[in-house]
Amino acid sequence: MSRKVIIAGNWKMNKTAAEGKALVDALKPLVADVCPDVADIVVCPTFTTLAAVIDAVKGSNIKVGAQNVHWAESGAFTGEISAAMLKELGVEYVILGHSERRQYFGETDETVNKRLKAALAAGLKPIVCVGELLEERETGKTEKVLFTQLEGGLAGLSKEDMAKVVIAYEPVWAIGTGKTATPEIAEETHNYIRCTLNDMFGKEIGEGVRIQYGGSMKAENAKELVAQPNIDGGLIGGAALKADSFSALIHNAIAG
């Protein structure tokens, strides 16, 4: 099955509104030749930078995502943002369950699941992150960890809802470390995720879900990674913070 490439830049806690606008303004001409039928390009700024970036991408082929969302529609949740608030702003995608949210802010498969359902109900397109720690990989627990995260995070979803979800595989040991799984190791793990989704939702849905690689993808390795049968793009950290490196990565990924 042919799946459209999706490259999403996770800016993490970087870029003020002015800096985010400048980055998008620099990026737009560099990726203007990328056909929306071939690849989805997404940038995911901080909450305070979203409005400026949404305004800056107008008329371009760049889409905007948020880095998190709360599961409640409203209420006494100081510091949180609802899906309806993001949707009204013009956000299209939202990252859920990133390893840093799990590590530093207590995210669990249960809370990821609640956020996921809220995002889908509001019409957002979720990017759900899964991945194992270095110790878990070295002790042969990768598949067990991924199965638990997929089973818990995607619990209760209909086939129709699952078709709207993107999965991002993050080998936590390769995030920001400069370490990257070889294309063969990454593909083996992506294939396991694909087979698990096929078992959970049926082959028709599972084969259609896009699975990103989120472990230190950069321009130099994007082509070889995305050339793998089950790697459909990347969730990009550091390389997404500069227009030239992000553009080069996008073009190389498409060439893959």
Automatic annotation (TrEMBL):
Superkingdom as given in the UniProt entry: Bacteria
Originating organism: Victivallis vadensis
Molecular function, one GO term: triose-phosphate isomerase activity
Classification via InterPro entries: Aldolase_TIM, TIM_sf, TrioseP_Isoase_bac/euk, Triosephosphate_isomerase, Triosephosphate_isomerase_AS
Gene behind the chain: tpiA
Keyword Cytoplasm: yes
A GO biological-process term: glycerol catabolic process
Function: Involved in the gluconeogenesis. Catalyzes stereospecifically the conversion of dihydroxyacetone phosphate (DHAP) to D-glyceraldehyde-3-phosphate (G3P).
Compartments, as annotated in UniProt: Cytoplasm
Protein name: Triosephosphate isomerase
GO CC annotation terms, alphabetical: cytosol
Active-site residues, record numbering mapped to chain: H98, E170
Family: Belongs to the triosephosphate isomerase family.
Pathway membership: Carbohydrate biosynthesis; gluconeogenesis; Carbohydrate degradation; glycolysis; D-glyceraldehyde 3-phosphate from glycerone phosphate: step 1/1
Catalytic activity: D-glyceraldehyde 3-phosphate = dihydroxyacetone phosphate
Keyword presence, Cell inner membrane: no
Pfam (any one): TIM
EC number: 5.3.1.1
Subunit structure: Homodimer.
UniProt entry keywords in alphabetical sequence: Cytoplasm, Gluconeogenesis, Glycolysis, Isomerase
